Amino acid sequence: MEEQRVDVAILGAGTAGNDAVRQVRRAGKSFVLINGGPLGTTCARVGCMPSKVLIHAADVLHERRHFSELGLRGGEDLRADIPAVLARVRSVRDLLVGRLIGRTTAKLDEQFIEGYARLEEPDLVVVGEQRIRAERVIVATGSRPIVPKPWQAFGERILTTDTLFEQEDLPPRMAVIGLGVIGVEMGQALARLGIRVTGFDALDRVAGISDPELNDFAIERFSQDFPLHLGEAAQISEEDGALRVSNSQHSALVDKVLVSIGRAPNTAGLGLEEIGAPLDERGRPRFDPATLQVGDLPIYLAGDVTGERAILHEATDEGRIAGFNASHGEAGASFRRKAPLGVVFTDPNVASVGASLADLDPDQTVIGETDFATLGRAIAIQKNYGRLRLYAERESGRLLGAAMCVPGGEHLAHLLAWSVEQGLSVADLQRMPYYHPVLEEGLGRAVDDLASKLAGAGEDQLASVARLG
């Protein structure tokens, strides 16, 4: 059988794969992009975008609870038309997916191959009857939701983000198992749309929060929307045509269950073990996080398939890194990664920036914080709730990280991520302007609290004013 020869074969046409294509093209290398399954990236098709459309509808409806305080009447009669909400989710999703495909795979001719790939040798990719000999291979095959095998027997009553947005309607009672980023976002949104939601998680924290004080605050806030049963794994059983979700202390009878306990990298069937790729104890390929190369093989990983930073902007960076290294010779370049940044689109937003509190030396770390309860702009817009905590190095005053559960956290997190990326100190942040009245004043308060706690910060009251002469 004749073999097609290319410089780079890219497996997976998601975010990482498409960004890898751009790098390979820029280098003038020949390539093929191979994809099995639906096109459109996890973010656009079943992740970031459809979920935000649903969340927006839920948050708009939720505001009716405050109408009477503002002198607005009739809000109590507003209700969610769930089929119409879901129809709009799909409509916007389809629009975004169509645009994405139109500027990526639709522009490729023979360079795009539909089908599931397998590596028969480190440089030999097989797709159906096609054989592609590639000098280097980029594996960007993404991930899939994890559903324990016993739960699969409940069929369509078990939902994941792959199937949630395909529903034409939703039942009045649902459970969410797994209260990480997706579980908390969807649990709160569904509850605000009028569905009776009950949440379960084996962990005693939510939304991926590692700061204990912030976690306690977030649990208190989110429990106002739906009950959270934490610290013990949940089980599912059949009961009178419904599903009973329970742990030893709590249970709920529901019609459907959204399972959001994580995603698994799509490496099964790729043949990595057979070609000698080094694997970890979970059977995932080991790779250099700076170059993304798998062992000493001519293979690079990028995106969710790494099992690590499953966030779109990280997948973009990894696609670029893998694409660059696959295009520029055997000695792959090492890249410094950007400051970590994560956002959970709950109300209030949960966000993390830079180093987590668990990774810092408590003896060398100073924590500054503020509560948004008395913040003027937050009171004006009826969102005067939230906690913001900043972490700085005691000796230098350099900002190391932050964690928050605050209104407008998606924006504050970016300001702080840019500050961490640039290595700014608390004094640097005090010299920044803070307008009034805006939510960013909460950041200014936390910065001032941090400055007052740092050793030798006696002049922090003048830190924001430049001296002349």
3D architecture notes:
The chain has about 475 residues and is α/β, with parallel strands linked by helices. It has 3 domains: about 200 residues, FAD/NAD(P)-binding domain; about 110 residues, FAD/NAD(P)-binding domain, CATH 3.50.50; about 120 residues, 2-Layer Sandwich (Enolase-like, domain 1). It has 13 helices and 22 strands. Strands 1, 2, 3, 4, 5, 6 and 17 form a 7-stranded mixed beta sheet that branches. Strands 8-15-9-10-11 form a 5-stranded parallel beta sheet. Strand 1, helix 1 and strand 2 form a beta-alpha-beta unit. Helix 1 runs parallel beside helix 9 and helix 3 packs antiparallel against helix 4. It is globular and about 75 Å long. The relative contact order is 0.12.
Q: Report the CATH topology name of the largest domain.
A: FAD/NAD(P)-binding domain
The secondary-structure class comes to: alpha/beta
Report the span from N to C terminus.
80 Å
Radius of gyration: 24 Å
> How would you state the average pLDDT, rounded?
94
**Beta-strand content bin:** 15-25%
Assigned CATH architecture of the largest domain: 3-Layer(bba) Sandwich
Largest sheet: 7 strands, mixed
